[in-house]
Amino acid sequence: MALVPDAVRSLASEKLEVVVQAGAGAEAGFSDEDYRTAGAALEADAKTLMGRADVVLKVQPPTEDEVANLRAGSVLIGFLKPLDLPELARRLASRGVTSFAMELMPRITRAQSMDALSAMSTVAGYRAVLLAAVSLPRLFPMMVTAAGTISPSRVLVIGAGVAGLQAIATARRLGAVVDAYDTRPAVREQVESLGARFVELDLDTGDAEDAGGYARAQSDAFYQKQRLELGKKVGAADVVITTALVPGQRAPLLIDEAAVKRMKPGSVIIDLAAEKGGNCACTEPDREVVAHGVRILGPTNLPADVPSDSSRMYAKVVTAFLKHLAPEGELALDFEDEITRGALLTRDGNIANDAVRALAEGASSSGGAS
Ligand code: NAD
Fold it and tell me: pTM of the full predicted structure?
Protein backbone atom coordinates (compact mmCIF):
# COMPACT_ATOMS: atom_id res chain seq x y z
CA MET A 1 0.00 0.00 0.00
CA ALA A 2 1.24 3.46 -0.83
CA LEU A 3 -0.40 4.87 2.30
CA VAL A 4 -1.09 3.32 5.70
CA PRO A 5 -3.59 4.88 8.12
CA ASP A 6 -0.89 6.78 10.07
CA ALA A 7 0.31 8.37 6.83
CA VAL A 8 -3.29 9.35 6.00
CA ARG A 9 -3.53 11.01 9.41
CA SER A 10 -0.34 12.92 8.77
CA LEU A 11 -1.49 14.12 5.31
CA ALA A 12 -4.97 14.98 6.58
CA SER A 13 -3.37 17.18 9.23
CA GLU A 14 -1.80 19.17 6.36
CA LYS A 15 -5.33 19.70 5.00
CA LEU A 16 -4.80 17.27 2.12
CA GLU A 17 -7.90 15.33 1.21
CA VAL A 18 -7.08 11.61 0.95
CA VAL A 19 -9.14 9.02 -0.92
CA VAL A 20 -8.15 5.35 -0.65
CA GLN A 21 -9.19 2.47 -2.90
CA ALA A 22 -11.61 0.36 -0.84
CA GLY A 23 -10.24 -3.00 0.29
CA ALA A 24 -6.75 -2.28 -1.03
CA GLY A 25 -5.09 -2.43 2.41
CA ALA A 26 -6.72 -5.67 3.56
CA GLU A 27 -3.82 -7.99 2.79
CA ALA A 28 -1.36 -5.65 4.47
CA GLY A 29 -3.52 -5.67 7.60
CA PHE A 30 -5.17 -2.25 7.17
CA SER A 31 -8.97 -2.26 7.02
CA ASP A 32 -11.20 0.29 5.31
CA GLU A 33 -12.39 1.24 8.78
CA ASP A 34 -8.78 2.02 9.85
CA TYR A 35 -8.42 4.34 6.84
CA ARG A 36 -11.78 5.99 7.52
CA THR A 37 -10.89 6.59 11.16
CA ALA A 38 -7.58 8.12 10.05
CA GLY A 39 -9.51 10.64 7.94
CA ALA A 40 -9.61 9.10 4.45
CA ALA A 41 -12.61 8.71 2.20
CA LEU A 42 -12.99 5.30 0.52
CA GLU A 43 -13.66 4.79 -3.18
CA ALA A 44 -14.61 1.37 -4.50
CA ASP A 45 -13.75 2.08 -8.13
CA ALA A 46 -10.04 2.64 -8.76
CA LYS A 47 -10.80 4.16 -12.19
CA THR A 48 -12.97 6.87 -10.70
CA LEU A 49 -10.40 7.50 -8.02
CA MET A 50 -7.52 7.94 -10.44
CA GLY A 51 -9.53 10.10 -12.79
CA ARG A 52 -10.40 12.56 -10.03
CA ALA A 53 -7.16 12.83 -8.10
CA ASP A 54 -4.73 15.72 -8.32
CA VAL A 55 -2.04 13.39 -6.99
CA VAL A 56 -2.00 9.59 -7.36
CA LEU A 57 0.24 7.59 -5.00
CA LYS A 58 1.02 4.05 -6.11
CA VAL A 59 3.50 1.30 -5.34
CA GLN A 60 3.86 -0.43 -8.72
CA PRO A 61 3.89 1.20 -12.19
CA PRO A 62 0.41 1.89 -13.58
CA THR A 63 -1.08 -0.43 -16.19
CA GLU A 64 -2.00 0.90 -19.63
CA ASP A 65 -5.64 1.26 -18.53
CA GLU A 66 -4.59 3.14 -15.44
CA VAL A 67 -2.47 5.56 -17.46
CA ALA A 68 -5.49 6.19 -19.70
CA ASN A 69 -7.50 7.08 -16.57
CA LEU A 70 -5.02 9.61 -15.22
CA ARG A 71 -6.08 13.20 -15.60
CA ALA A 72 -3.88 15.50 -17.71
CA GLY A 73 -2.06 17.78 -15.30
CA SER A 74 -2.25 15.31 -12.42
CA VAL A 75 0.80 14.15 -10.48
CA LEU A 76 1.77 10.46 -10.21
CA ILE A 77 4.27 9.16 -7.63
CA GLY A 78 5.43 5.56 -7.39
CA PHE A 79 7.99 2.96 -8.42
CA LEU A 80 7.75 3.58 -12.17
CA LYS A 81 10.76 1.45 -13.24
CA PRO A 82 11.96 4.31 -15.46
CA LEU A 83 15.03 2.60 -16.92
CA ASP A 84 13.19 -0.68 -17.51
CA LEU A 85 9.94 0.82 -18.83
CA PRO A 86 10.84 3.87 -20.95
CA GLU A 87 7.67 3.23 -22.96
CA LEU A 88 5.59 3.88 -19.83
CA ALA A 89 7.37 7.22 -19.42
CA ARG A 90 6.45 8.07 -23.01
CA ARG A 91 2.78 7.26 -22.37
CA LEU A 92 2.73 9.28 -19.15
CA ALA A 93 4.31 12.22 -20.95
CA SER A 94 1.83 12.12 -23.80
CA ARG A 95 -1.03 11.93 -21.29
CA GLY A 96 0.26 15.20 -19.78
CA VAL A 97 0.96 13.63 -16.39
CA THR A 98 3.67 15.04 -14.13
CA SER A 99 5.26 11.86 -12.81
CA PHE A 100 7.90 11.21 -10.19
CA ALA A 101 9.75 7.87 -10.03
CA MET A 102 10.89 6.91 -6.56
CA GLU A 103 13.84 5.10 -8.18
CA LEU A 104 15.19 8.45 -9.40
CA MET A 105 15.28 10.04 -5.94
CA PRO A 106 18.75 11.55 -5.48
CA ARG A 107 20.88 9.73 -2.90
CA ILE A 108 21.67 12.89 -0.92
CA THR A 109 21.45 13.39 2.82
CA ARG A 110 18.53 15.85 2.49
CA ALA A 111 16.51 13.20 0.63
CA GLN A 112 17.25 10.31 3.00
CA SER A 113 13.72 10.32 4.45
CA MET A 114 12.36 10.06 0.87
CA ASP A 115 14.55 7.15 -0.22
CA ALA A 116 12.12 4.36 -1.07
CA LEU A 117 14.74 2.15 -2.74
CA SER A 118 16.76 1.96 0.46
CA ALA A 119 13.66 1.23 2.54
CA MET A 120 12.65 -1.67 0.28
CA SER A 121 16.24 -2.95 -0.06
CA THR A 122 16.43 -3.17 3.72
CA VAL A 123 13.36 -5.40 3.80
CA ALA A 124 14.65 -7.49 0.86
CA GLY A 125 18.05 -8.06 2.49
CA TYR A 126 16.45 -9.25 5.73
CA ARG A 127 13.91 -11.43 4.00
CA ALA A 128 16.51 -13.01 1.68
CA VAL A 129 18.35 -14.41 4.68
CA LEU A 130 15.17 -15.85 6.20
CA LEU A 131 14.38 -17.47 2.86
CA ALA A 132 17.87 -18.97 2.75
CA ALA A 133 17.61 -20.18 6.35
CA VAL A 134 14.40 -22.11 5.71
CA SER A 135 15.62 -23.45 2.38
CA LEU A 136 18.95 -24.74 3.74
CA PRO A 137 19.08 -28.32 5.08
CA ARG A 138 21.35 -27.02 7.84
CA LEU A 139 21.00 -24.77 10.89
CA PHE A 140 22.52 -21.30 10.86
CA PRO A 141 23.97 -21.07 14.39
CA MET A 142 26.52 -23.24 16.09
CA MET A 143 24.79 -25.48 18.60
CA VAL A 144 26.42 -27.43 21.38
CA THR A 145 23.89 -30.00 22.50
CA ALA A 146 23.77 -33.45 24.10
CA ALA A 147 23.03 -34.66 20.58
CA GLY A 148 26.34 -33.33 19.35
CA THR A 149 27.89 -30.09 18.20
CA ILE A 150 26.58 -28.44 15.07
CA SER A 151 28.97 -26.11 13.28
CA PRO A 152 27.61 -22.76 12.08
CA SER A 153 26.58 -22.25 8.47
CA ARG A 154 28.75 -20.09 6.27
CA VAL A 155 27.06 -17.25 4.44
CA LEU A 156 28.69 -15.23 1.67
CA VAL A 157 27.11 -11.88 0.77
CA ILE A 158 28.17 -10.39 -2.56
CA GLY A 159 27.35 -6.68 -2.85
CA ALA A 160 27.34 -4.83 0.47
CA GLY A 161 25.02 -1.91 -0.33
CA VAL A 162 21.78 -1.36 1.55
CA ALA A 163 20.33 -4.86 0.96
CA GLY A 164 23.68 -6.61 1.44
CA LEU A 165 24.42 -4.90 4.75
CA GLN A 166 20.97 -5.83 6.07
CA ALA A 167 21.55 -9.42 4.89
CA ILE A 168 24.87 -9.50 6.74
CA ALA A 169 23.28 -8.16 9.94
CA THR A 170 20.41 -10.67 9.73
CA ALA A 171 22.66 -13.67 9.02
CA ARG A 172 24.92 -12.66 11.92
CA ARG A 173 21.90 -12.39 14.24
CA LEU A 174 20.95 -15.92 13.23
CA GLY A 175 24.42 -17.10 14.20
CA ALA A 176 25.99 -17.76 10.80
CA VAL A 177 29.63 -17.07 9.98
CA VAL A 178 29.46 -14.33 7.36
CA ASP A 179 31.87 -13.22 4.63
CA ALA A 180 31.06 -10.32 2.33
CA TYR A 181 32.50 -8.72 -0.78
CA ASP A 182 31.89 -5.48 -2.63
CA THR A 183 33.89 -3.76 -5.35
CA ARG A 184 33.64 -0.50 -3.39
CA PRO A 185 36.46 -0.72 -0.84
CA ALA A 186 34.69 1.98 1.23
CA VAL A 187 32.22 -0.59 2.58
CA ARG A 188 34.88 -2.74 4.27
CA GLU A 189 34.49 -0.90 7.56
CA GLN A 190 30.69 -1.27 7.52
CA VAL A 191 30.98 -5.00 6.76
CA GLU A 192 33.42 -5.52 9.61
CA SER A 193 31.38 -3.45 12.05
CA LEU A 194 28.53 -5.95 11.53
CA GLY A 195 30.78 -8.84 12.52
CA ALA A 196 31.46 -10.18 9.04
CA ARG A 197 34.80 -10.71 7.28
CA PHE A 198 35.54 -8.62 4.22
CA VAL A 199 36.70 -10.90 1.40
CA GLU A 200 39.96 -9.83 -0.26
CA LEU A 201 40.14 -10.41 -4.02
CA ASP A 202 43.11 -9.65 -6.21
CA LEU A 203 41.25 -7.00 -8.27
CA ASP A 204 41.99 -3.37 -8.96
CA THR A 205 38.95 -1.56 -7.55
CA GLY A 206 40.43 1.93 -7.71
CA ASP A 207 37.60 3.32 -9.89
CA ALA A 208 34.82 1.14 -8.45
CA GLU A 209 32.72 3.94 -6.96
CA ASP A 210 31.10 6.90 -8.73
CA ALA A 211 30.52 10.34 -7.22
CA GLY A 212 27.02 9.31 -6.07
CA GLY A 213 28.35 6.37 -4.03
CA TYR A 214 27.12 3.76 -6.54
CA ALA A 215 29.22 1.07 -8.19
CA ARG A 216 30.67 1.89 -11.58
CA ALA A 217 30.49 -0.70 -14.36
CA GLN A 218 33.75 -2.61 -14.86
CA SER A 219 35.29 -4.22 -17.94
CA ASP A 220 34.49 -7.75 -19.11
CA ALA A 221 38.03 -8.77 -18.16
CA PHE A 222 37.43 -7.47 -14.62
CA TYR A 223 34.23 -9.47 -14.22
CA GLN A 224 35.86 -12.57 -15.67
CA LYS A 225 38.65 -12.33 -13.11
CA GLN A 226 36.13 -11.59 -10.36
CA ARG A 227 34.14 -14.72 -11.25
CA LEU A 228 37.29 -16.82 -11.09
CA GLU A 229 38.40 -15.34 -7.77
CA LEU A 230 34.95 -15.50 -6.20
CA GLY A 231 34.44 -19.09 -7.35
CA LYS A 232 36.58 -20.43 -4.49
CA LYS A 233 34.66 -18.41 -1.88
CA VAL A 234 31.33 -19.42 -3.34
CA GLY A 235 32.35 -23.08 -3.18
CA ALA A 236 33.05 -22.82 0.54
CA ALA A 237 29.70 -21.21 1.41
CA ASP A 238 26.45 -22.91 2.44
CA VAL A 239 24.48 -19.84 1.45
CA VAL A 240 25.31 -17.10 -1.05
CA ILE A 241 23.23 -13.93 -1.12
CA THR A 242 23.93 -11.72 -4.12
CA THR A 243 22.81 -8.10 -4.34
CA ALA A 244 25.32 -6.59 -6.79
CA LEU A 245 23.88 -3.91 -9.06
CA VAL A 246 25.23 -1.17 -11.29
CA PRO A 247 22.64 1.59 -11.93
CA GLY A 248 21.14 1.50 -15.42
CA GLN A 249 22.93 -1.70 -16.43
CA ARG A 250 22.33 -5.42 -16.47
CA ALA A 251 23.43 -6.86 -13.12
CA PRO A 252 27.05 -8.09 -13.30
CA LEU A 253 27.39 -11.84 -13.73
CA LEU A 254 29.46 -12.91 -10.73
CA ILE A 255 28.69 -16.61 -10.22
CA ASP A 256 29.08 -18.87 -13.23
CA GLU A 257 27.95 -22.47 -13.47
CA ALA A 258 31.43 -23.72 -12.53
CA ALA A 259 31.15 -21.86 -9.21
CA VAL A 260 27.68 -23.31 -8.56
CA LYS A 261 29.14 -26.76 -9.23
CA ARG A 262 31.73 -26.16 -6.49
CA MET A 263 29.03 -25.72 -3.83
CA LYS A 264 27.91 -28.61 -1.66
CA PRO A 265 24.58 -30.20 -2.62
CA GLY A 266 21.78 -28.58 -0.61
CA SER A 267 23.50 -25.19 -0.62
CA VAL A 268 21.37 -22.17 -1.41
CA ILE A 269 21.84 -19.06 -3.55
CA ILE A 270 19.42 -16.14 -3.15
CA ASP A 271 19.94 -13.80 -6.09
CA LEU A 272 18.44 -10.40 -5.31
CA ALA A 273 19.66 -9.09 -8.66
CA ALA A 274 17.28 -11.45 -10.51
CA GLU A 275 15.09 -8.65 -11.85
CA LYS A 276 18.14 -7.04 -13.48
CA GLY A 277 19.32 -10.25 -15.12
CA GLY A 278 20.80 -11.93 -12.02
CA ASN A 279 24.30 -12.18 -10.50
CA CYS A 280 24.26 -15.96 -10.99
CA ALA A 281 24.22 -17.64 -14.39
CA CYS A 282 21.54 -20.15 -13.28
CA THR A 283 19.04 -17.64 -11.84
CA GLU A 284 15.51 -17.43 -13.19
CA PRO A 285 13.41 -14.56 -11.82
CA ASP A 286 10.76 -15.66 -9.30
CA ARG A 287 11.50 -19.35 -9.81
CA GLU A 288 13.38 -21.96 -7.85
CA VAL A 289 16.05 -23.63 -9.95
CA VAL A 290 18.05 -26.64 -8.76
CA ALA A 291 21.43 -26.81 -10.52
CA HIS A 292 24.14 -29.29 -9.50
CA GLY A 293 22.19 -29.93 -6.28
CA VAL A 294 22.16 -26.21 -5.38
CA ARG A 295 18.85 -24.37 -4.87
CA ILE A 296 18.85 -21.01 -6.60
CA LEU A 297 16.09 -18.52 -5.91
CA GLY A 298 15.64 -15.21 -7.69
CA PRO A 299 12.84 -13.39 -5.84
CA THR A 300 12.05 -10.02 -7.42
CA ASN A 301 9.64 -8.58 -4.88
CA LEU A 302 10.49 -9.68 -1.35
CA PRO A 303 8.98 -6.56 0.28
CA ALA A 304 5.58 -7.85 -0.90
CA ASP A 305 6.05 -10.85 1.42
CA VAL A 306 6.09 -8.45 4.38
CA PRO A 307 3.24 -6.18 3.25
CA SER A 308 2.47 -4.60 6.58
CA ASP A 309 5.89 -3.19 7.45
CA SER A 310 6.88 -2.64 3.82
CA SER A 311 3.76 -0.50 3.42
CA ARG A 312 4.53 1.38 6.65
CA MET A 313 8.02 2.18 5.39
CA TYR A 314 6.96 3.06 1.86
CA ALA A 315 4.08 5.22 3.12
CA LYS A 316 6.44 7.15 5.37
CA VAL A 317 8.82 7.81 2.50
CA VAL A 318 6.10 8.75 0.00
CA THR A 319 4.45 11.03 2.55
CA ALA A 320 7.73 12.81 3.19
CA PHE A 321 8.12 13.34 -0.57
CA LEU A 322 4.54 14.55 -1.01
CA LYS A 323 5.01 17.03 1.82
CA HIS A 324 8.15 18.19 0.07
CA LEU A 325 6.10 18.80 -3.09
CA ALA A 326 3.20 20.34 -1.19
CA PRO A 327 4.79 22.12 1.76
CA GLU A 328 1.70 24.12 2.81
CA GLY A 329 -0.83 21.44 1.87
CA GLU A 330 -0.90 22.82 -1.71
CA LEU A 331 1.19 21.48 -4.58
CA ALA A 332 4.02 23.93 -5.23
CA LEU A 333 6.40 22.14 -7.61
CA ASP A 334 9.80 23.80 -7.60
CA PHE A 335 11.71 22.28 -10.51
CA GLU A 336 14.88 24.09 -9.48
CA ASP A 337 14.95 22.00 -6.31
CA GLU A 338 17.42 19.08 -6.49
CA ILE A 339 15.01 16.55 -4.99
CA THR A 340 11.98 17.53 -7.08
CA ARG A 341 14.04 17.75 -10.27
CA GLY A 342 15.94 14.55 -9.52
CA ALA A 343 12.85 12.37 -9.05
CA LEU A 344 10.98 13.97 -11.97
CA LEU A 345 10.20 11.57 -14.83
CA THR A 346 7.69 13.41 -17.03
CA ARG A 347 6.42 16.98 -17.25
CA ASP A 348 4.66 19.20 -19.79
CA GLY A 349 4.30 16.36 -22.29
CA ASN A 350 8.00 15.45 -22.19
CA ILE A 351 10.23 12.89 -20.53
CA ALA A 352 12.25 15.04 -18.13
CA ASN A 353 14.94 12.50 -17.26
CA ASP A 354 17.75 12.46 -19.86
CA ALA A 355 18.65 8.76 -19.52
CA VAL A 356 15.03 7.63 -19.78
CA ARG A 357 14.36 9.98 -22.71
CA ALA A 358 17.36 8.54 -24.57
CA LEU A 359 16.07 5.02 -23.94
CA ALA A 360 12.54 5.91 -25.04
CA GLU A 361 13.83 7.59 -28.21
CA GLY A 362 16.06 4.59 -28.93
CA ALA A 363 13.13 2.22 -28.46
CA SER A 364 10.78 4.20 -30.72
CA SER A 365 13.37 4.66 -33.50
CA SER A 366 14.30 0.95 -33.49
CA GLY A 367 10.54 0.17 -33.37
CA GLY A 368 10.01 2.38 -36.44
CA ALA A 369 12.78 0.66 -38.40
CA SER A 370 11.52 -2.86 -37.87
P1 NAD B 1 22.94 -0.91 -5.48
O2 NAD B 1 21.66 -1.58 -5.12
O3 NAD B 1 23.04 -0.15 -6.74
O4 NAD B 1 24.11 -2.03 -5.50
C5 NAD B 1 24.27 -2.95 -4.46
C6 NAD B 1 25.74 -3.16 -4.16
O7 NAD B 1 26.35 -3.94 -5.19
C8 NAD B 1 26.55 -1.87 -4.09
O9 NAD B 1 27.16 -1.78 -2.81
C10 NAD B 1 27.58 -2.03 -5.19
O11 NAD B 1 28.84 -1.46 -4.87
C12 NAD B 1 27.68 -3.54 -5.28
N13 NAD B 1 28.31 -4.06 -6.51
C14 NAD B 1 28.18 -3.62 -7.78
N15 NAD B 1 28.94 -4.35 -8.61
C16 NAD B 1 29.58 -5.29 -7.85
C17 NAD B 1 30.47 -6.34 -8.15
N18 NAD B 1 30.92 -6.56 -9.37
N19 NAD B 1 30.91 -7.10 -7.10
C20 NAD B 1 30.49 -6.88 -5.84
N21 NAD B 1 29.62 -5.90 -5.52
C22 NAD B 1 29.18 -5.12 -6.51
O23 NAD B 1 23.42 0.05 -4.31
P24 NAD B 1 22.65 0.54 -3.01
O25 NAD B 1 22.63 -0.56 -2.04
O26 NAD B 1 21.34 1.12 -3.38
O27 NAD B 1 23.59 1.72 -2.46
C28 NAD B 1 24.83 2.03 -3.00
C29 NAD B 1 25.45 3.24 -2.30
O30 NAD B 1 24.57 4.31 -2.11
C31 NAD B 1 26.02 2.96 -0.95
O32 NAD B 1 27.22 3.69 -0.85
C33 NAD B 1 25.03 3.53 0.00
O34 NAD B 1 25.61 3.83 1.24
C35 NAD B 1 24.68 4.75 -0.76
N36 NAD B 1 23.38 5.27 -0.32
C37 NAD B 1 23.30 6.60 0.03
C38 NAD B 1 22.09 7.12 0.46
C39 NAD B 1 21.95 8.55 0.85
O40 NAD B 1 22.93 9.23 1.05
N41 NAD B 1 20.71 9.03 0.95
C42 NAD B 1 20.97 6.31 0.50
C43 NAD B 1 21.09 4.97 0.13
C44 NAD B 1 22.31 4.47 -0.30
Answer: 0.93
